[in-house]
What we know:
Layout: E1 5-10, H1 18-28, E2 34-39, H2 45-53, E3 57-60, E4 74-75, H3 77-82, E5 87-89, E6 95-97, H4 100-110, E7 118-122, H5 126-137, E8 141-146, H6 149-162, E9 167-172, E10 182-185, H7 202-205, E11 210-213, H8 222-229, E12 233-235, H9 238-253, H10 259-277
Parallel strand pairs: 1-2, 1-3, 4-6, 7-8, 7-10, 8-9, 10-11, 11-12
Antiparallel strand pairs: 3-5, 5-6
Amino acid sequence: MPERKFAVIGHPIGHTMSPFIHKRLFELAHEKGEYTILDISPDELPVKIKNLNELSGYNITIPNKQAIIPYLDRLDEKAALYGSVNTVKNGSECVGFTTDPNGFLKALEYANISFSGNIAIIGCGGAARTFLYEAALAGCNITLVARDIGKADSLAKEAVQKIPNANINTCLISDLNGEFDLLANATPVGMYPNTNHIPVSEKALAKCKNVFDAIYNPLETVLIQKAKANGSNAVGGMSMLVWQAVAAHEIWDNSTYHIDDINQLIEDSAKEMKKIFYK
């Protein structure tokens, strides 16, 4: 039986942790699977889709999470809600899923962060949409924080249209004030190589009980470091990255994993990232 083939597609897609993580997950589940990287832009999808359909499955990163949708047979419920796909399972039909929400929620769960109460979300991009929709579905009181209030208002309006009971306020980053049960950063502020930046003021950060930063490079951003110094419970994005990959394998193979193995994979992924970026 030929080995099944999987891939991650994106553009540009240079240093990605996906092959390292997914190869380990196949090993842990005792499943066979070759996993490669494919640099494909949205403009190339019409001519590349035949090759993608020959794979057993694939992951998708920017800028293809929306562009891939017209080429799929259907979306699962959560991918349809988000209008975004990061995992495809091929078979009798090509089905799109989004595992980003799974990764986010699992990362919070295993960091002992309760997803409830007053939540501030920084940003208006794809990660912010993930955090916003999940917070709305969980019944949280949400403050969407951005540098562009127009973009924040537009995303909030979109969320309320899809989740009518959502309780969402918007504000500029400079106006963020109040006590929050969770602050979730969904911006690239503080990401490698510009690691000395922080997305909110230290005054605002001091009033946040828990902090999640979607950035995984560096492992501990300045935001995470300062939150921990304040005594807050804080976690970076590496755990989300691994957990969303776990969810993809649950889709592809119904795989199950022991929590100790996943915790070890998170640690090993952090070490591998340091080898790649901090030689």
